Amino acid sequence: xxxxxxxxxxxxxxxxxxxxxxxxxxxxxxxxxxxxxxxxxxxxxxxxxxxxxxxxxxxxxxxxxxxxxxxxxxxxxxxxxxxxxxxxxxxxxxxxxxxxxxxxxxxxxxxxxxxxxxxxxxxxxxxxxxxxxxxxxxxxxxx
Length: 143
Description:
The protein has two domains: 16-55; 59-142. The chain is 38% helix and 26% strand. It has two helices and five strands, in the order ααβββββ. Strands 1, 2, 3, 4 and 5 form a five-stranded antiparallel β-sheet that branches. β4 (118-129) and β5 form a beta hairpin. The protein is elongated and about 85 Å long. The termini are far apart.
């Protein structure tokens, strides 16, 4: 005999079929809520970047390399506040051993010299990622 519970209408016992639909509906609603919360927290762009990170080991260099390289270049400029950077995609440094631990990025910076003239300087930036996930950069400016 089934005992009526607070979830039933008029104190009548709820059927197994009705209970199953409530369980399935609740599970579907929970999945939808989790998915919407995920998208609201990350957004489509960040979710796609995360997927790309799993497919491309150079993703972390592409994502964080330009910032690390710019920090390495700025102290070498006469007018760091006028600097405008443009970077290419990172590539493995095949000359380093082991190659997986070092990437290179080519780019250029447009910045003012001591006379106020804007000059373009080519840059080669070497990036490494240590075991703790900290990225370091060394930049070489080409005149």
